């Protein structure tokens, strides 16, 4: 009898469940799908403010974590029910595929209205991440297709207390200096370096910064185009950087499987390592975990003094507008409002995210400003004219992991990566 | 000596047994202890406070988790999903398992094997065709669509499990019921289901936990935030950059309670065979 | 199987088969819509080169040909097999031992029954966080940070201190052990449920015949438990072959290729390298392999039953 009652209850619930049907899109409403859990509250405050100012309701839907969000966007694109505003968290080639399929609005006119007013107010590099230039390899009509809402870059962070303890007075500027510091730290019993190298993009960023520094951007691009081999001495130097750091005992044990969140705790909470490599958001993370942490931010130490150290930087997050949306113009107006000075200052004070609007930079503290100072010289895979085949990238990054754990030599990894590259070139040349 | 060989042996065996059980127990209890302990700390003390039980107990974290995680809405949603899906699975799977085990119809074995095979083939890419199909059926962004998908997820395994238990059932009771004039449906309800109580309990626990912890499918299928399950509330504290550990742990603790309650409730049925005497042999 | 004893029914046999068939109609309907259809779509996609968005290019069986020579893929299959093997032996032995213990009249068995089900209920966040701390190989001011290494140093075995998760020799084994710890609760309750259904009189009868505990176990318990054990074995294989959330929470994107399993390779093809069609081909091959394993197992268990 009990079981029967339970069944009855269940069926009734199921019946009520069917009752709630789909509600159609309300008029004068912009629907935004995002994945930034930590920003939902601040976004909602802004949405209410926007409604008060314009009478247009902004419906913010949060879908986390980001991999579930990506699946949702792909699925919604197939069924043609994308919202007015969303994000494409993927490589530029995928963004291009979305554009070519007609899911992304061309925002060039909006950006260039009134003598480029909107474009000029934002960091150039942040806009560039969303730009397809004339003659781009993806075959997309040139233009700007996304709105950056914050900026960021990846830098070397150092713990001032620990360096002082070891008798180091200033952060290293060259790779040689860094190696000397590492030796000093080792002797003082301090682990020199930690980072979330279990997340491959951090290795990617670290390695590509050094590749740009060692051989210059043209040679890197030529490698992607298949004109330079990974067994080239310059690439061997890039691989060898990881071997040198490993041999000198720079890396914290277990670094290759460490997630960035754990690396952040190692660096900031427990002060277990003197250096770390991380992005601009870390300033906020550290501030929350250890408000009194004494640290500084510098670019990675240069290996080749003849060339500058260019770091990855640009838009941290970009939003795109659905080209099929009937409220396209309203959505664009909202995004324009979101990147205006006042809103950017609000986002900065609440989330410590680096403003994308140049005029909102006043009042940004030193450690955070250090991440934006390199903005004009920074680079990003999304502004490169050509990108490496993802399969080659995977072999490249996994190879570096193998070097860090001492499993393979730089030469062996260079050969392996080039093998994958040759295979991909051959595959691409087939009909 | 006051002990005979048997007593000594018995004593050692029992001690060893308890040492073994207690070791496993500690390994299971520690995480729960740690989770509750962390849920009572603050964002800065969570990493630094070494005390076994923190000095300042931050019960406030539970309030924050409940309100900021919008648990009031998501809790009800998860309850609706869990109860509907589990009820659906119990009815549909036990009907099918009963038929596969006790009844005759053409193609029986073939269909059963297809079900079992389906259990083995994961469909990581299937959300795209599934989503397109659901959209055509107007089931995207509805509770019903999500419930049906989740019923499908647990179906194969539940059928396999229940069939195994139905197979072990003695035909005597069934025959007796038939002679008393019961039809197949009545036999399923009055004979088979009560006898399979332990297996049903396992099915209920397994599927409850599955639905309660699911979020990928919910994220993909549901867009209306008011239809989201509990895990969506937890995500708020577990950001891509930022993790609010104390509040997350408070949320996780609250989330774990209903599942443990279901387990406690169902566990009685698993061990019921003991008190009521074995009926299946 | 139930055999109909009443001759009257034989005339209406086909009608009977039809009503019997109605029992499985709900299950089959849901199954066809939500499983069979997506499966065929998936299989269809595996014949294309597709990035997940935009136009698809038909390539026939080329994805499968490529997969046949994909060394990393077959390595990942082997690694999933290794995790499964450890789960089958270690996890199930543990589960069976605990179920046997709790089936007896011992003190606190209610408590144990509750406690052993805690790991399956735990969130991956908690499991990942705690085991990362246990297996941490970092040092801080000369002290071991991780619980395991710290313990080894304290009891006088500093030579056993190890980089557990970042050494190819131990990484996968650590993952398998944590996986077994997280999963034994399922085997435990199912085996316990099975043990509960064994007629106590069988034990009494065997004991009167002079059987010791060992003989009782092998000649009464095990034979009676074969069907349940088979289900548990099959579920272990399924659960272990498809493990991946735990791997993410322990080693993130993996230690080179040493911790990759097929599901991770499928996700990496789908999202990392945007080869949607290839990922579908991987899923199809993976599924078929699992089906082959489980049917071999089924045949094997049928043979045991006949013995």
Structural class of chain A: alpha+beta
Identify low-pLDDT runs of chain B. 273-281
Might you state the CATH topology name of the largest domain in chain B?
MetI-like fold
> What is the highest CATH level, the class of the largest domain in chain B?
Mainly Alpha
H/E element sequence of chain B: HHHHHHHHHHHHH
**Shape descriptor of chain B:** flat
Biggest beta sheet summary of chain A: 7 strands, mixed
Q: What does the average pLDDT of chain A come to?
A: 89
Q: How many β strands of chain A by DSSP?
A: 11
Spell the H/E element sequence of chain A: HEHEHEHHHEEEHHEHHHEHEEHHEHHH
The level 1 CATH classification of the largest domain in chain A is: Alpha Beta
The description of the largest β-sheet of chain B is: none
C-alpha-based Rg of chain B, rounded: 24 Å
Shape verdict of chain A: globular
Percent helix range of chain A: 40-55%
Task: Write structural notes for this entry.
- The complex is a heterotrimer of chains A (431), B (281) and C (307).
- By secondary structure, chain A is of the alpha+beta class.
- Helices cover 50% and strands 13% of the residues of chain A.
- Chain A has helices at 2-19, 40-54, 66-78, 92-100, 108-121, 124-128, 160-165, 175-187, 200-224, 233-247, 260-269, 282-289, 328-338, 341-351, 366-373, 390-404, 410-429; strands at residues 29-34, 57-62, 85-86, 131-132, 143-144, 147-159, 191-194, 273-279, 295-298, 313-321, 354-355.
- The longest helix of chain A has 25 residues, at 200-224.
- Chain A starts with a helix and ends with a helix.
- The model of chain A is unreliable at 17-23 (pLDDT under 50).
- Chain B has 281 residues and is mainly alpha-helical.
- Helix content of chain B is 75%, strand content 0%.
- Chain B has helices at residues 5-39, 45-48, 60-68, 71-102, 108-120, 127-136, 143-168, 171-179, 184-195, 197-213, 216-221, 230-235, 245-276.
- Chain C has one domain: MetI-like (MetI-like fold, Orthogonal Bundle), CATH 1.10.3720.
- Chain C is built from 14 helices and four strands.
- Chain C has a two-stranded antiparallel sheet.
- In chain C, helix 4 packs antiparallel against helix 11.
- The longest helix of chain C has 33 residues, at 71-103.
- Mean pLDDT of chain C is 85; it is low at 1-11.
- Chains in contact: A-B, A-C, B-C.
- Chains B and C meet through helix 1, helix 4, helix 5, helix 6 and helix 7 of B and helix 1, helix 2, helix 4, helix 5 and helix 6 of C.
């Amino acid at each position: 009898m009990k079981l029967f009652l339970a069944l009855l209850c269940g069926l009734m619930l199921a019946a009520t469940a069917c009752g709630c049907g789909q509600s159609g899109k309300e008029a004068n409403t912009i629907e935004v799908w995002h994945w930034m859990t930590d920003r939902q509250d601040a976004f909602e405050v802004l949405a209410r403010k926007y409604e008060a100012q314009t009478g247009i309701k902004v419906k913010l839907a949060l879908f986390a974590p980001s991999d579930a969000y990506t699946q949702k966007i792909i699925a919604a694109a197939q069924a043609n029910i994308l919202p007015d505003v969303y994000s494409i968290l993927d490589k530029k080639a995928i963004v291009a595929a979305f554009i070519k399929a007609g899911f992304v609005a061309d925002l060039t006119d909006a950006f260039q209205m009134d003598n480029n007013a909107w474009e000029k107010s934002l960091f150039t590099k942040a806009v560039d991440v969303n730009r397809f230039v004339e003659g781009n390899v993806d075959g997309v009509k040139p233009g700007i297709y996304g709105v950056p809402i914050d900026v960021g870059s990846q830098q070397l962070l150092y713990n001032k207390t620990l360096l002082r303890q070891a008798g180091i007075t200033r952060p290293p500027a060259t790779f040689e200096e860094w190696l000397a510091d590492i030796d000093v730290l080792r002797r003082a019993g301090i682990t020199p370096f930690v980072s979330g190298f279990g997340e491959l993009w951090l290795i990617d960023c670290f390695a590509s910064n050094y590749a740009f520094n060692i051989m210059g951007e043209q040679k890197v691009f030529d490698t992607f185009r298949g004109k330079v081999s990974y067994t080239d001495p310059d690439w061997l130097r890039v691989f060898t950087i990881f071997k040198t750091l490993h041999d000198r005992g720079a890396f914290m044990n277990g670094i290759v499987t460490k997630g960035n969140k754990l690396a952040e705790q190692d660096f900031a909470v427990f002060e277990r390592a003197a250096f770390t490599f991380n992005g601009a958001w870390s300033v906020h993370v550290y501030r929350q975990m250890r408000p009194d942490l004494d640290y500084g931010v510098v670019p990675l130490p240069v290996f080749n003094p003849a060339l500058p150290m260019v770091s990855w930087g640009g838009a941290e997050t970009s939003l795109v507008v659905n080209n099929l949306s009937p409220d396209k113009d309203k959505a664009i107006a909202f995004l324009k409002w979101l990147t205006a000075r006042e809103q950017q200052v609000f986002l900065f004070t609440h989330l410590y995210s680096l403003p994308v609007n140049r005029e909102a930079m006043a009042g940004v503290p030193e450690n955070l400003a250090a991440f934006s100072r390199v903005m004009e010289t920074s680079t990003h895979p999304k502004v490169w004219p050509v990108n490496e085949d993802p399969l080659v990238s995977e072999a490249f990054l996994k190879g570096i992991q193998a070097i860090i754990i001492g499993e393979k030599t730089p030469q062996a990894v260079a050969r392996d990566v080039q093998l994958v590259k040759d295979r991909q070139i051959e595959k691409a040349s087939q009909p | 000596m006051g002990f005979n060989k048997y007593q000594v042996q018995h004593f050692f065996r029992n001690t060893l047994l308890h040492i073994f059980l207690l070791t496993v127990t500690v390994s299971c209890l520690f995480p729960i202890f740690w989770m509750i302990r962390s849920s009572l700390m603050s964002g800065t003390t969570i990493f630094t406070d070494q005390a076994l039980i923190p000095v300042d107990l931050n019960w406030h974290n539970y309030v924050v988790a409940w309100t900021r995680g919008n648990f009031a809405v998501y809790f009800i949603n998860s309850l609706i999903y869990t109860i509907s899906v589990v009820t659906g699975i119990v009815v549909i799977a036990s009907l099918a398992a009963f038929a596969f085990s006790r009844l005759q119809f053409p193609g029986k074995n073939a269909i059963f094997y297809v079900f079992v095979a389906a259990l083995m083939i994961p469909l990581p890419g299937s959300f795209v065709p599934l989503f397109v199909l659901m959209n055509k059926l107007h089931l995207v962004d509805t509770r019903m669509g999500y419930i049906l998908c989740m019923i499908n997820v647990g179906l194969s395994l539940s059928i396999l499990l229940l069939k195994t238990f139905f197979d072990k059932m003695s035909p005597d009771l069934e025959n007796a019921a038939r002679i008393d004039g019961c039809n197949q449906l009545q036999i399923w309800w009055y004979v088979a289901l009560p006898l399979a109580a332990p297996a049903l309990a396992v099915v209920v626990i397994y599927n409850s936990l599955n639905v309660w912890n699911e979020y990928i499918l919910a994220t993909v299928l549901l867009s209306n935030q008011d239809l989201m399950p509990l895990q969506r509330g937890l995500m708020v504290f577990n950001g891509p950059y930022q993790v609010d550990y104390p509040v997350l742990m408070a949320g996780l603790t609250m989330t774990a309670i209903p599942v443990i309650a279901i387990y406690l409730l169902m566990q009685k049925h698993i061990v019921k065979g003991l008190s009521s005497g074995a009926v299946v042999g | 199987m139930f055999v109909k004893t009443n001759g009257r029914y034989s005339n209406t046999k086909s009608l009977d088969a039809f009503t019997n068939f109605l029992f499985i109609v709900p299950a089959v309907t849901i199954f066809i819509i939500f499983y069979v259809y997506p499966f065929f779509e998936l299989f269809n996609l595996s014949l294309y080169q597709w990035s997940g968005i935009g136009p698809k290019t038909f390539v026939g069986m080329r994805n499968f040909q490529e997969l046949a020579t994909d060394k990393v893929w077959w390595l990942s299959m082997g690694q999933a097999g290794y995790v499964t093997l450890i789960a089958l032996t270690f996890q199930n032995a543990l589960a069976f031992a605990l179920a046997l213990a709790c089936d007896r009249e011992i003190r606190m068995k209610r408590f144990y029954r509750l406690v052993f089900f805690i790991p399956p209920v735990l969130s991956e966040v908690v499991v990942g966080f705690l085991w990362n701390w246990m297996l941490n190989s970092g040092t801080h001011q000369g002290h071991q940070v991780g619980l395991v290494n710290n313990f080894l140093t304290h009891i006088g075995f500093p030579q056993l201190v190890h980089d557990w998760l970042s050494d190819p020799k131990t990484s996968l084994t650590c993952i398998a052990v944590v996986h077994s710890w997280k999963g034994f609760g399922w085997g435990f309750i199912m085996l316990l449920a099975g043990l509960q259904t064994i007629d106590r009189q069988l034990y009494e009868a065997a004991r009167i015949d002079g059987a010791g505990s060992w003989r009782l176990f092998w000649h009464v318990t095990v034979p009676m438990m074969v069907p349940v054990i088979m289900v548990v074995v099959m579920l272990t294989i399924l659960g272990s072959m498809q493990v991946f959330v735990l791997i993410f929470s322990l080693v993130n994107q993996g230690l080179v290729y040493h911790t990759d399993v097929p599901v991770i390779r499928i996700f990496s093809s789908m999202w990392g390298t945007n080869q949607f069609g290839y990922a579908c081909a991987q899923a199809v091959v993976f599924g078929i392999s699992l089906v082959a394993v489980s049917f071999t197992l089924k045949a094997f268990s049928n043979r045991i039953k006949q013995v």
